[in-house]
Every structure is written in C-alpha cells, then in structure tokens.
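Lab notebook, entry 303. We have the chain sequence and a SMILES string for calcium ion, and the next step in the workflow is to get a structural model of the bound complex before anyone spends time on docking refinements. Request logged below.

Task: model protein plus calcium ion, output structure tokens.
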Amino acid sequence: MLDLARTARALVVLAGLLACLAARGLDRDLDGLEDGLEDALLARFAPVVLLDPAEPALPGSTDWLLARSDLEPAPGPRPRVLAAAVLGVVSWPKPVEDPAARLHPRPAARRGSSDPADWIAYGHVYPADGGGVLLQYWFFYAFNDAYGVFDHEGDWEHVTVKLAADLAPVGAWYARHYDSHPGIWFPWTALVRDGEHPVVLAARGTHASYPSVAEVPDWERTCGTTWIPAAAAGGCGVWRTWASEAGGVVNVGERVAPRVPFIAWPGRWGATGRLGMDSRSEPPRGPAFQRAWCQGAARGGCE
Ligand SMILES: [Ca+2]
Ligand SMILES: [Ca+2]
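Result returned:
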C-alpha cells in the first residue's frame, strides 16, 4: 500500500515536471529564446526583397546548390564526392568539415533558380545585448555577377531587424559590400514597409541591400521603386520571403546547436573568385562563420 502511494506521488511529480517543460517550450538551439517565438517573429518581420528586372543571378537555397555542386574536401586535390549525398544523410566526414573544404558548383547553377519556390531566406534569431531580439535574414545566391573583378561563387547577403524588449521593431541594418557587420542602420520609421515587412532593394548582380532608391550608389542598379505594385508592373522580382509561393524562412538555429546541418559547416560556398580565378579566400563561408553573424549579448556581436 505504501509503495502504491509512493508511486502515485512520483507520477504526480513527474506529470508536474512534464507540464512545466511543455509550458516553457522548446529551445533546441540553446539561445534562451523559445523556438516557437523565434519562428513567429521571423515570419512576422520577414522582408520583401525586390530584384532588378535584369537580375542575372537569382536566389536559391543551400539544398538547391548542393544538388548542383561537387564537394572538395580539404586540402585538395582529392576525389570529390557529391555534396548532396553527404549533407543530411550522414554527418560531414572529417576532411569535409575542414574550413578549407569548398563546393564546386556547376557553371549553369550561377544563374540561380528561376522557380521562386526554391528561394529560401535563412533566419537567425538571437537575444540582443541589453534586452530585445535580433532577427537576421540571410539570402543565398550562387553567384555574385556584376563586375568581373568583384565576382565570386557563393553570395550571402543579409538584413538584421532589431526588436526592443517588448518585441516592437526599432530598426534594421542593411548590409552592403564592406558595410556588412551587420550593415548600415535605419530606424524602423525610415523604412518602406509592406505592413510589418521591410522592403529591400537587392542590387543587380551584387545583391547588396538598400532601403530606398536614394541610397543606391551610381555604380549599382536596382529595381527603380520600393512601391511594390509599381515594382511588379515594372518587371522587378517581388520576393515575399515568408510567403507560400516562395521557399519561406528557415530558422537555422545556432552554430553550437543547429536546426539545419549546413549552418555548422565551415567550408566555402564556391571555388571561383574575381576574374574567374580559382580562389580559396573569396567565395564566402556560411553565415555562422561571418563577422556579421550576430552573437547578441556579447559586445560587438550586433548590439
Ligand atoms: Ca531558441
Ligand atoms: Ca536562435
């Protein structure tokens, strides 16, 4: 009888613990933010990206490119393995996990995907220093295709929205070329928005992010307007990153606790740099290995 009573008490305690854990929600990427909240915020403030009508290098996704690339383990030359056969099936073997590993996309992949369903924005959510939340949106293009001296395979671009402690939007950083750690700051009230979705002009070929036509330097070309109906009528690509006709926003988690495998891969997303030359330094590493990856809570890690 005593044992029964003890077992019943233990079950009650266990049920209480489980209820407590369920109420707290999941935090699979171990950043202190409930993952359901991260996903909801990412969708709520996801940008509208306007592409130039003559954009030669459209967006894609990491899976899309991996299906069109060979993987060269470090330090090369070594036998290549089909990247898609590695990612998501087994963990990266050691030579592949080396930062000197890199992808060799097939030349046709440089144009990106003509099907918007393949376009994925990669979200990174992290607690901000001093309270609030940072929402990073990373866009992936197979190629920077503008001026030969700057071109390279693998082109990661990004904007970062900052929310205050009450989760109200404060403003956003738009990354462009060397101003990309995390970018140039604009107050929320200064941004053109579609509801709560900030509008981003992606420069033709370079994919740098601008909030207005007035911000675009003479040597860049973008869609000529941030007014979405006029952009669509003028032939600009209208990429509503969160919408069902696009690939959506994928929360990548944190580098130490990824929610998708590729985010922990330290290699380079291409093998060709300026003037079409083989390069081990110009094609970038993934978002989590760039200076612009917000670490929040740490000084200098995106305020
Ligand atoms: Ca989390
Ligand atoms: Ca996170």
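Notes for the group: The pocket of calcium ion (ligand 2) is lined by residues 29, 31, 33, 38, 125-126, 253-254 (CB under 6 Å). Worth checking against the assay data. Residues 17-23 have pLDDT under 50 and may be disordered.
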